[in-house]
Amino acid sequence: MKKCLFLLSTMFVCYSGVYCQSIKFNDLIYLTSLNNRQVFDNLMQGKAFRQDYTMDVNGQEMEYFKSIGPKANSEKINVGGYTKLLDGAILRTVNYTSNDPLYILNMISQVKRYGLELKFRGEDATNNIYLYDNNFYHVSIYLRRDQTSGLVEIKQKEYLGID
Fold first, then answer.
1. How confident is the model at residue 160 (pLDDT cuts 50, 70, 90)?
2. pLDDT score, position 4
């Protein structure tokens, strides 16, 4: 009986990590500071994502990545969107989507732990909407009301500090 319980508990621990989320909120924040080539290198090194395709959108080279592994294609990352400021600085945007609502709920808890302040919580016809903000980032999270998918959009903000 003890061997059976040990075996079951070991199997539970092993299988619980098989379907875990491939990327964390901190990693997405880190990706906002990288150019497309650096994001590609970083995601390929992690071996959790593969590049799906690249597309030119209004002069911006957008790159799309899909998760690989047991739950392939359940997570997607889109990079390459940016806003160029008059001084030449580039503020980047990273989008993360998932068809697993638990991953989006997990991202919401990670955003809270990161210390971003909830500025708005509401809903429209299709989504529950969460808007978080601090001096450096604006994070928009959309979780489908039918619990089928969600989107996390992270935008860098211009920080006006005192020199």
1. low
2. 42
Q: Report the distance separating Cα 138 and Cα 122, nearest Å.
A: 16
84-91 long-range Cβ contacts below 8 angstroms, 24+ apart: 85/158, 89/158, 91/155, 91/156, 91/157, 91/158
15 vs 29: CA distance, rounded Å:
28
Secondary structure E strands in 68-160: 75-84, 90-98, 117-123, 127-133, 137-144, 150-156
Q: Residue 35 and residue 91: Cα distance in Å, rounded?
A: 11
Instruction: Tell me how far apart the alpha carbons of residues 5 and 2 are, in angstroms, rounded to a whole number.
Output: 5
Higher pLDDT, 87 or 6: 87
Pull the structure tokens for residue 156: 């860098």
Judged against a pLDDT cut of 50, whether residue 10 lies above it is answered with no
The residue type of 4 is C
